[in-house]
Amino acid sequence: LGQMVMQPLAQVWQAFVAYLPDLFVLLLILGVTYILWRIAGLVFKEIEAGNITVPGFERDWASQNYKLVSLLLLFGALIVGYNYLPGAESNIFRGVTVFVGILFTLSSTTAVSNLVAGVIATYTGAYHIGDIVVMGGITGRVIEKKLLTTVVRTFKNEDVSIPNGLTLSREIVNYSNMARQEGLVLHTTVTIGYDVPWQQVQSLMIAAALDTPGILAEPPPFVLQTALNDFNVAYELNAYTQQPERMPRLYAALHAAIQDQF
After folding, report:
1. With left for phi above 0 and alpha for psi between -120 and 50, is residue 183 left, alpha or beta?
2. 77-91, 227-241, 242-256: lowest mean pLDDT where?
3. Residues 6+ apart with CB under 8 A from 185
4. What angle do CA 141, 143, 145 make, to 5 degrees?
5. 87: Cβ–Cβ under 8 A, 6 or more apart, which residues?
6. E strand or H helix at 260, and its extent?
7. Residue 35 Cα to chain centre, angstroms
8. What is the side-by-side strand order in the sheet with 184-193?
């Protein structure tokens, strides 16, 4: 009985001793991968903070690129260290690996499309962290860009995770781009009867816009007569702002100012 017990243990010990060279190589691969991962993290963190500048590389790209580099380092370590894993040459290990690969291939189509879409959206500069956007029918501020999803916080403080595939297949409205430059145009429409002079309506609407906090005096607000209906005229007030994150409150204040003026 003692011989039956000790013989398998001796075989296990001999296999472990024979595996030690491969184990050292595997540990070396893991160590190098960890060091490269740490270096990449420090570099991209400094780029995001603005301490390191790379021509043609935007600071907003740092977080997404760090995630991509981490993923590539992980895959690289798996590819290089695969042959040094214990039992890598056995038929059972190969069969399990093929089975897992087939499962991953069949189930990752959507994930890969979301990953590619996220990379494309990052490098095209369609939106950045902190931008006010309309994405996938959701309006809010971009608070996080992940490899597979983008998190948008609505004006009601709801965090919505939107698959990156939607950002590639549907349009993205970015309110913050123009707000940082000339200004975002807020617009609202009122209908007034033909008995009121249109000059008076326009002057009242412009005065209401100038009385609204957050509305810019330059460029000046303007009014468009967008429709001549059967019983009234549609007047569209257009006013500039650089605060797209306050849109709901600005619209409410603008409507209240229009009521006060009229």
Report:
1. left
2. 77-91
3. 178, 238, 239, 240
4. 120
5. 93
6. helix 247-261
7. 28
8. 184-193, 232-241, 222-228
Report how far residue 169's alpha carbon sits from residue 9's, in angstroms, rounded to the nearest whole number.
59
> What does each C-alpha distance from 139 to 70, 97, 155, 215, 248 come to in angstroms?
31, 43, 8, 21, 11
pLDDT, one tens digit per residue, over 10-30 is 877 887 787 788 888 888 988
Residue 198, Cβ neighbours under 10 Å: how many? 13
Tokens of 59: 């600071």
Cβ atoms of 129 and 60 closer than 8 Å:
yes
Q: What is the pTM of this model?
A: 0.65
* Closest among 50, 67, 175, 58 to 118, alpha carbons compared: 67
What pLDDT score was predicted for residue 105?
66
- Peptide bond preceding 219 in cis form (omega within 30 of 0): yes
pLDDT band (50, 70, 90) for residue 52: confident
- Rounded distance between C-alpha atoms, residue 235 and residue 228, angstroms: 9
Give the torsion through C-alpha atoms of 233, 237, 205, 191, to 10 deg: 20
